[in-house]
Each structure stands twice: as structure tokens, then as C-alpha cells.
Design goal:
Elements: H1 4-23, H2 28-33, E1 38-45, H3 57-63, E2 67-73, E3 78-84, H4 98-115, E4 119-125, E5 129-136, H5 139-151, H6 161-171, E6 177-182, H7 199-208, E7 210-217, H8 219-222, E8 229-233, E9 240-244, H9 248-271, E10 275-280, H10 285-300
Parallel strand pairs: 3-4, 3-6, 6-7, 7-10
Antiparallel strand pairs: 1-2, 4-5, 8-9
């Protein structure tokens, strides 16, 4: 039995995100994702001014008459929302936790998809695949996705983005748009001198699909409060350390390391051609999405 609080949260998210999709993102989703692919429709006889690159040489040789392949713009897409449910996502210090932010983002993306007659599915992952909902259409299906993201109790604590992307490639053979919603903090992330484990798999997945990284951030990822001794704990690994946050040098070192990590993450996404959206728990995410749509439209020109 699903608790009433979860159903109330689903309803609240449906109302707020539906309004956002209607008022803010109307047409923007379609302009940057729809019509990016072409699918085969039929073969017909060659006509003057047809592009010779579309000639079907097999049919032409068989009939003795030049034929060309006719393509139509793809009107239906598959959108896969991939949500990181690891322990580090259950963190937040301002307006909401990262996992609550992930649920609202999943809702916005899912409602945008069904509004444009696309199918949408869900993958919830930690250090393993926790939940897979195959792509379908319809409001009821989207509400189920939101409910699963909110209600799911993770079995794992860690993060395996590479494994989630490999699973995506196995379950979806046709090209899709995949939104990976995560803080992109994996085991060994503290070692800034080496590439993350997911980078190679991200590059492979982006060649087959249109992958968009949605990065979850919190102000405490960047800055420590000047509050004296702090015990910091790795949510996924469990390691603990003590630091003196009243020391300005300690806070500066923490800030520099965080900035270096964010800049490095952005470079990695660029290196494999993956677009990304930075969202923060203390800033309305609509601004980040609007900026992403505008940037992507500009790149497509």
C-alpha cells in the first residue's frame, strides 16, 4: 500500500511540473529533440532535382530504372529517464534533497515527452539496476514513473553509472534520448587525477543514443560553513574525516577542490560530446532547463 504522503507528493509534482511544461517549455522540447532523426518510408522512381545520394542502387539495378529512398522525419521518440538513487543523492541542505529534485526533473521530462506523443521509460540505479520500466505513453504511465522515483527504497548505496549505461544499450536497440540524472559521484571520485569509470561507457552510449547528463548539485558540495569542527562522511563508502571549518584555509582548499572537480566534469562531458544541465538544490531548476534548451538550439543551427 503506497502511503498517502507519497500520493500527495505525486499529485503536487504533477500539478507544478505540468504547469511548467505548458507555460515555460511549450515547443522548446520539440525544437531541440524532435525531428533530429530520419526514418525510411518507401522507395520511388527518381525525379529531377532528387538528391543522387538517396539513390537505392539495389532497386535501381533490379528494375533498370533509377529509384531513390524516401525518408520521413521521425515523429515519435523514445525518452529514457535514468535516475541515480545512490546514498549521495539522499543529500541536500537548502530547498530539497537531491533525490527529490531528481523526481521533479523526471516529471518535467516525462510530461514533456508525452505531450509530444513520445514514449518514456525509467531506469533507477545505484551500484546495480534497481528498477526498469519499459517506455510507454500516457499520463498514467508518467504518474507511475514519478511514484517509483519517490517511493523506491534503494537496495544499494554506491553508484555504477557505467553499468546503468550498459543496461540502457541492452534494453533499447533503437536510438533514444537518455537523461542521466545524477550527482556523478562514484567510488574513487576523490581522486581527481584519473578519469571516472563511467567515461568510456558514456562515450559508447552517446554514439548510439542522444545522452544528456543532468548533474545534481548542492551548495555544501562547494562550500563548508564556518562552524568549527565538522565530521564529514562519505555517504556511499562510509569513510569519515574530521576538519576544522572555522579555518579559512580549510574552507578555501575545500572550495578549490570542488571547483576543480566541477570544471573537470564539464571537460569530460565535452570530450565525449555529451550535453549537460547543471541543477542546484537552492536554485529553481527551470532556469537551468531554459538555458539548456537555448544553448542546444543555438548549437543545432
Amino acid at each position: 500500500m503506497i502511503p498517502k504522503s507519497i500520493l500527495d507528493s505525486v499529485r503536487r509534482i504533477e500539478i507544478s511540473t505540468n504547469r511548467l511544461v505548458s507555460d515555460v517549455f511549450a515547443g522548446q522540447y520539440q525544437s531541440v529533440f524532435k525531428g533530429r532523426g530520419m526514418e525510411f518510408d518507401e522507395v520511388r522512381e527518381y525525379q529531377p532535382n532528387d538528391d543522387v545520394r538517396t539513390i537505392d542502387w539495389n532497386v535501381t539495378a533490379r528494375t533498370g530504372i533509377p529509384h531513390v529512398k524516401k525518408f520521413v522525419e521521425e515523429r515519435e521518440m523514445t525518452v529514457m529517464v535514468m535516475v541515480d538513487a545512490s546514498a549521495s543523492a539522499r543529500f541536500g541542505t537548502v530547498r530539497m534533497l537531491k533525490n527529490a529534485l531528481a523526481a521533479e526533473l523526471a516529471a518535467v521530462l516525462a510530461f514533456s515527452a508525452i505531450r509530444n506523443n513520445d514514449k518514456v521509460g525509467l531506469i533507477i540505479f545505484t551500484d546495480g539496476i534497481e528498477k526498469f520500466i519499459p517506455p510507454r505513453k500516457g499520463r498514467a504511465h508518467v504518474l507511475r514513473i514519478i511514484r517509483e522515483v519517490l517511493y523506491h527504497t534503494p537496495r544499494g548505496k554506491g553508484t555504477d553509472i557505467a553499468g546503468a549505461l550498459e543496461f540502457l544499450s541492452r534494453v533499447l536497440t533503437r536510438r533514444a534520448v537518455a537523461f542521466v540524472i545524477s550527482d556523478f559521484i562514484e567510488p574513487g571520485a576523490a581522486d581527481l587525477s584519473r578519469e571516472p569509470l563511467f567515461l568510456k561507457r558514456l562515450a559508447i552510449a552517446n554514439r548510439r543514443h542522444d545522452v544528456v547528463a543532468v548533474t545534481l548539485n548542492d551548495p555544501r558540495d562547494m562550500d563548508l560553513p564556518p562552524c568549527g569542527l565538522l565530521e564529514l562522511e562519505d555517504a556511499e563508502g562510509g569513510e569519515r574525516s574530521l576538519c576544522d571549518a572555522s579555518d579559512g584555509r580549510v574552507r578555501a582548499a575545500y572550495r578549490n577542490r570542488a571547483e576543480f572537480r566541477l570544471q573537470g566534469r564539464e571537460r569530460l562531458f565535452r570530450s565525449v560530446g555529451v550535453d549537460h544541465i547543471d541543477v542546484w538544490t537552492d536554485v529553481p531548476y527551470a532556469k537551468s532547463l531554459v538555458y539548456f534548451f537555448a544553448k542546444r538550439r543555438k548549437k543545432m543551427r
